[in-house]
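Issue 218. Parser rejects a valid record. Input:
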Amino acid sequence: MNKNKMSLGTLAWPIMIEMFLQFAIGTADTLMVSRISNDAVAVVGFANQFFNAVLIVFMLVASGAGILIAQRLGAGQQRDARVLGTMAIVITGALGIIVSITIFFGAGTFAEALNVPHEILPDADTYMTIVGSGMLLTALNAALSTCVRNTGDTRSPMYIAFGMNIFHVFLNACFIFGALGFPKWGLQGVALSTVIVRFLAVLVLLRLFRHAFGSKIAWSEFFKFKPKLLKEVIRIGWPMSLNGASWTISQLAIFSLIGIMGTHELAARTYMNTMESFAFTVGWSLAVAAQIQIAYMYGKDMRREAYYSCYRAMGAGMLLVTLNTGLMLVFRQPILQYFTDDPWIIDTAITLLWLNLILQPGKMLNMALGQSVNAIGDGRFSMMVSLPSMWILAFGLSYALGLSLDWGLYGVYVGMILDEYTRGIIMWFRWRNHRKAGKLADRIGAPAVDAKGAVQAGTM
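Output the parser choked on:
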């Protein structure tokens, strides 16, 4: 494999653009739906939080398989990498079918259980039923793109995301506003557009996946399982999946608390999610790129390079997310007024943007170190740290400060800030420990030697 293909910059920029484009789908939805009503925006925001929680179920296998694919390719074990990929797709697809059926019959029940405000409950039921029925497509999208990225090909998923965005906006214009003679379906049109675009993306990604491991993967290979490899996937994947599920469910629980505060607060948080995504995307893309690179280097026994890759990603990310948030603050008025003309929502969002100057660097610290630890198979420790922190600090303080003390959304942000920095600092000590006495210790700090036992110059 071309070494430059696994450089941090080569991996990161297509992921960054792809994620910007995917978040742009959500932004397009928010902008277009905001022309319907603030209630419709609240429906989309709440439903997307729910679907993000469901998505974590599909990552149980895909996340573990992705790391192992990069490690195996680094070690030159191409055949195992192929099997890991096909197993991940089949198992994730089966989970997607089960989840799609469950949501189709139970969308309204889920919405009620999550405290969706009564006035938007019918719309939430309709939207969640349509989009939830296509969760199989969401599952396959996530698994296919994860496997392809971990082969080092981060550009192709980016191109697919670009095509999805253009077509999604086109379909939104047709289905929401009745362009080109289509009926004006409103919120239902957004849901239909989402499902159609995801279906087309799966078709393209599946073709890409079958050519991602050298020779074309035959359909018969999707029925080949290696229990030993599957055991490794589950061992690495379950802590990451549980960690991700807990975080997403905690965010959904926080959204539920905000739903109790009122529709205005829910709409404001939805607008903020959309704006924050542009800072979050920069940091997350660097963290994902670092994970792929570190897993590849770890498999290739390049332990020293793997260790310092984490810090390169974290440093670049800190700078970029802070700059990104600063730009949003500079242009806060025109940005917010483009979303809504509600003065309460605008004033609240401006204050929350200032809090983001503190929040986003903490997120970057946590993401870079967390993904690095996962890349070398230490996801269980990350899970053990994250679960109590996100529930005690992020959710607990959101309830105590936001509801009990009536701080509203400001209390929610204080809880999130303390959670991100607490986890990030603990993971920093863990990563340093891997250099001294952990998985990287045997390769860090000791000079390399040649075949005759002589110390090689310039290795330290």
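Fixed in the parser; the record now loads. Confidence is low (pLDDT under 50) at residues 445-460.
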